[in-house]
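2024-03-11 09:14:02 DEBUG pipeline.ingest accepted 1 chain
2024-03-11 09:14:02 DEBUG pipeline.ingest length=338
2024-03-11 09:14:03 DEBUG pipeline.predict start
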Amino acid sequence: MNRVITLNEFIIEKQKDFPYSSGELTGLLSDIGVAAKIVNREVNKAGLVNILGATENSNIQGETQQKLDVYANHQFVSAFRSGAEVAAIASEEEEDICVYQNEISRDAKYVVAFDPLDGSSNIDVNVSIGTIFSIYRRVTKGVCTREDFLQKGMYQVAAGYVIYGSSTMLVFTTGNGVNGFTLDPSIGEFCLSHPNLKTPENGSIYSINEGHYNDLPEGIKQYLNWCKESNKADNRPYSARYIGSMVADFHRNLIKGGVFIYPQTAHSPNGKLRLLYECNPMAFIAEQAGGKASTGKQRVLELQPTALHQRVPIIIGSKNMVEKVEQMLEQFSPVSTL
């Protein structure tokens, strides 16, 4: 019988392969696992308690905060504060960075950018949602500043996501492959279920909100039309699958092969997803699994961030599918995509 490997066991066994072989990074990943289990518990009983629906507040993006958004944000902020491996955090739900000033945390080596609950507009209808996180090693001394967060994605030391779905999974990378852990509710532990995840180079799924079709760059329109053509040689027409939660759409395509597209539109010329805590961590995971992530013109991980909540277009998933979208954009929309 195969031995069950828990998240904590895996982290300890693989610590020597982590960037800087850091005990702090080991503890930080464990803290994320604990916070995810707490959020998972609330997600699973959301219909039974008063945490569904919207609050009267908006976040920095001007988006209405869901009650579970606020709850998840609080749990992760508290976990990072109590764990003392993090000097500061940046959250989708916070306007600016939050610097931990206590004597232990202020000299910590790492900062974390995260989206506490991706796809929260789906909470009330029982659709899969998730948490996304990105970990960087600090570049400043003394009190943390925004400079510690405004690093290119290629400098991430770890990144991952948690998907709260029919089962709850934590998927992460430290730059040495991608591994997935499924929460076993009978023992309350994340257990290694998807070792060394690799995404297929080709797939037959495309994920995009086609309701914006008229506002899309011409290259994206041409790609969508191409996806719908019949061609047995490359298994077209492709299947359209769009959940509206980046974590859920990305996770499906990671395993089955596919491409997720959230491009710029006439109404969102810079795209809509955030670079630091959505696009960069997912791009890091995609590349480590053999996939690709692009703005349509440039590798996502090479972008220089200029703001905490900066938005960018993203095309991410199976390598050959992403490259096909890039080709279409170059041919039909040569100057319209970042």
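2024-03-11 09:14:41 DEBUG pipeline.report The chain has a mean pLDDT of 89.
2024-03-11 09:14:41 DEBUG pipeline.predict end
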